[in-house]
Amino acid sequence: MSSALPIHPTTGEPAPCCVPSKVRAERLAESRHFAEQRPRAADGSTEDMVKLDTTRFLMGTEADDGFPADGEGPIREVTLDGYWIDKYPVTNEKFGQFINATSYETEAERFAWSFVFHNQLPSNRYRELVDDTVAGHEWWCKVNGADWAHPEGPDSNVAERPHHPVTHISWGDAVAYASWAGKRLPTEAEWEAAARGGLEQKTYAWGDELTPDGKHVCNIWQGEFPVTDAAEDGYAGPCPVDAFPANGMDLYSVAGNVWEWCEDWFHPGYHVFGTAVNPVGPPSGSSRVMRGGSFLCHHSYCNRYRVAARTSNTPDSSTINLGFRCARDL
């Protein structure tokens, strides 16, 4: 299995993102759903979910601090039918319930390895745990035995992290959980509408200032990336899903902490494929959309904790900063 950076679907160049990918060629062109309309799911419990009625909002950004090549713009008006969306990313506790009920095996478990960021590994065991690194981005380590239940490798566990977001989750794993729960993944437009929290065209889910009144309100990197995380926000890794305040729609952890999978295939010309009503991505592709940024995002490298930022990864990829939340129909 090769270790590689995400490849931009148009340019063929490595995408400037802080999440590496697993590449499995025979999987890249497959799609579980038609893209003419979003998949539907309306059987799951609405506990700890937020209800959004018909929503009209301005999606995307044309700000100078963004990544135009990612297709963040142009700004366009989008209308969405009502839906429910999880208040929180799916936690270790919730995902463990799914595993116990179904005996599901995640893709990281089937591959028998996953990506772990170097500063999440004990320095005295680095050589023992790391099988390989991503060339040119050696901070990403291939760790045998790393998976959702063992985030830093085979000797780690999540027993004392029940309310942390589950990580090392592939797109397929997220879809499997959502189906079991009677839910689905949010479309990219649904994710952004909810993450904006009712604010129009603000940079972040809470406004235009990264640290309002000097306070940290999300879990991202402080310091010199990728060498030193000063953890000024209190965390140098994933944190509990409710560690920081909710946005205006009562959603937690929509910026930083862990990336979140969306339903859509990724394309930088997203706005071309989606209509103005309930837009979805193209009907096929090589990678799925991820939103929200993670604890590894830093303004010098990947400031994709902005609410309009977007990136992608191959559907079978899993890392220590990649999770998801669910949605369902009314």
Distance between the termini: 41 Å
Question: What ranges have pLDDT less than 50 throughout 5 or more consecutive residues?
Answer: 1-17, 24-35
Number of strands: 16
What's the CATH topology label of the domain at 52-90 and 167-329? paralog of FGE (formylglycine-generating enzyme)
Q: Output the strand order for the largest sheet.
A: 14-13-12-15
Write a compact overview of the structure shown:
With 330 residues, this protein is an alpha+beta fold.
Explain how this protein is built.
It is a single chain. The protein is built from six helices and 16 strands. It is α+β, with helices and mostly antiparallel strands. It has a domain at 52-90 and 167-329: paralog of FGE (formylglycine-generating enzyme) (Alpha-Beta Complex), CATH 3.90.1580.10. A four-stranded mixed β-sheet has the order 14-13-12-15.
Keyphrases for this structure?
four-stranded mixed beta sheet, disordered N terminus, single chain, paralog of FGE (formylglycine-generating enzyme), 20% strand, 330 residues
